[in-house]
Known about the structure:
By secondary structure, the protein is α/β, with parallel strands linked by helices. The protein has a single domain (3-266), classed as Alpha/Beta hydrolase fold, catalytic domain (Rossmann fold), CATH 3.40.50.1820. It contains ten helices and eight strands. It has helices spanning 69-83, 95-106, 125-140, 143-154, 157-163, 166-174, 182-194, 221-230, 246-249, 251-262, and strands spanning 3-6, 9-16, 23-27, 48-52, 88-93, 111-117, 208-213, 234-239. The chain has an eight-stranded mixed β-sheet, sandwiched between helices. The radius of gyration is 17 Å and the shape is globular. The protein starts with a strand and ends in a 7-residue tail after the last helix.
Amino acid sequence: MPYCNADGLRIYYRQRGPVSGPPLVLIPGLGGSHTAWNAVLPHLAPFRTLAADPRDAGRSHRSPVQYAIADMAEDIAHVIETHIGTPAAIAGFSMGGAIAQELALRHPALVRRLILIATYDAGDPRGDWIFQQFAMLRRTLPRTQYYRVLLPWLYTHEEFAGAINPQALVRRFAADSRRQPQDAYERQARATVRFHSRDRLGRIACPTLLIFGDGDLFTPLRFARSLKNGIPHSRLKVLRCTGHGLLLTRARDVAAAINSFAGTQHAGR
């Protein structure tokens, strides 16, 4: 299996596409693994994609101690340096978007283009409260019940009306054999709420694409506006009638935006 040793932990990643294609690194959100991108991958251009499992998730090793988003960014930097060796386009979803920002700030030479999807630049009291409550619910509710509570937070009423099958999704999420252990989830959640990049966004020099859903309850459009105002070379794409689960419901649109922004025509820029 493809692993990379970073900070004493083994970080798992899955590669796809031609080795000669422009490199694209995919980073999932809180609790997620490389499989979070499964619906998007078939629609991407012939990139050399590398989808990583952050520490404490998927097949990557569990951390014995608390860490920060910066530590997770260093893990990804090590994977790029070791297994790609050239600057890559970086796409991060939700928590993965925080990791991607930190990567661009700490290792600008590794980031050719930056795609930030349904993410944020700083926590706030409402967000902290939400994370605390969902951590509590995840700890106390049976798996199926937890995902029943979670689903309306991920998808809009339009998506419930046709883009998803709620019962099937609950069964699928509950049956995940690699579901993140609770202690690992809570370590990631603590790192997530402590992240803050707002006062550093002006240092992100690479071209940046922001992709947000207009009905996202976890990362509302106020975060898109803050990121857009803070990152000098950024543009914003808003998907209508779309929630936080856009990697599933709007997979083709997300892939099309990535293809246009980071595809072969931009490989040298």
